[in-house]
């Protein structure tokens, strides 16, 4: 098993390995699989990149992210300027239906709201915003309201997760209640947890996914 020091070092190396983050000053602490990230970066995209790099490290069970975004003075924009660029970004993304997403900007923080039929569209809306200069963060409050009214079959969700080579579904339990899918059990990496959730979100007719999977790398090696 990794010690706290080993895990801290692995996360630090993973962050430094990303070209976008090579020169970023990000502090890392680790205790019992819980990793905390601190520091300051000059873009929201870098903040997300650090988070994703840490999640991919074996042994990370939970992440506490306290990275602050601060721009050089020449990069600062008014809320009105940011809102205009966000709307342009959404309109130019073919995955996001026109006039379905509303935007609010406060002190550089963007909040997205509205209703869309698919989760991939919600993710596309967030991705259209994350790289814009002046954006300090994104709150994605877009709700999924599927236009498909077919009943969700538990076996279909289980089969979809089982088809993925990257997810060990041996201890993933699926339950369905109306338009909500809940995942419980244990997987051995954060990537597998998020991938199982992403696959579940592709279910026709779905409105909600409760991803309650626990992450325990060493679970796979238990007797």
Provide a descriptive summary of the structure in words.
The chain has three domains: 66 residues, Histidine-containing Protein, Chain: A (2-Layer Sandwich); 71 residues, Histidine-containing Protein, Chain: A (2-Layer Sandwich); 68 residues, Histidine-containing Protein, Chain: A, CATH 3.30.1340.30. The longest helix is centred in the first third of the chain and has 14 residues. Helix 1 packs across helix 2. It is of the alpha/beta class and 223 residues long. The chain is 32% helix and 28% strand. The strands form three sheets. Strands 4, 5, 6 and 7 form a four-stranded mixed beta sheet that branches. Strand 2, helix 2 and strand 3 form a beta-alpha-beta unit.
């Amino acid at each position: 098993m990794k010690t706290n020091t080993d895990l801290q070092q692995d996360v630090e190396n993973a962050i430094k390995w990303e070209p976008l983050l090579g020169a970023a000053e990000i502090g890392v602490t680790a205790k019992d699989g819980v990793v905390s990230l601190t520091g300051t970066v000059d873009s929201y995209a870098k903040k997300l990149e650090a988070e994703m790099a840490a999640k991919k490290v074996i042994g990370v069970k939970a992440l506490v992210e306290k990275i602050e975004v601060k721009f050089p003075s020449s990069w600062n924009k008014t809320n009105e300027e940011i809102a205009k660029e966000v709307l342009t970004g959404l309109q130019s993304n073919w995955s996001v239906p026109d006039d379905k997403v509303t935007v609010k900007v406060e002190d550089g923080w963007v909040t997205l709201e509205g209703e869309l039929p698919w989760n991939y569209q919600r993710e596309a809306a967030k991705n259209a915003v994350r790289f814009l200069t002046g954006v300090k963060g994104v709150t994605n409050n877009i709700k999924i309201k599927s236009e498909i009214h077919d009943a969700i079959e538990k076996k279909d969700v289980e089969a979809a997760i089982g088809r993925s080579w990257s997810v060990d579904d041996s201890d993933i339990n699926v339950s369905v209640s109306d338009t909500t899918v809940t995942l419980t059990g244990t997987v051995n990496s954060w990537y597998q947890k998020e991938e199982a959730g992403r696959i579940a979100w592709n279910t026709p007719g779905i409105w909600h996914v409760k991803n309650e999977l626990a992450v325990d790398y060493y679970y796979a090696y238990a007797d």
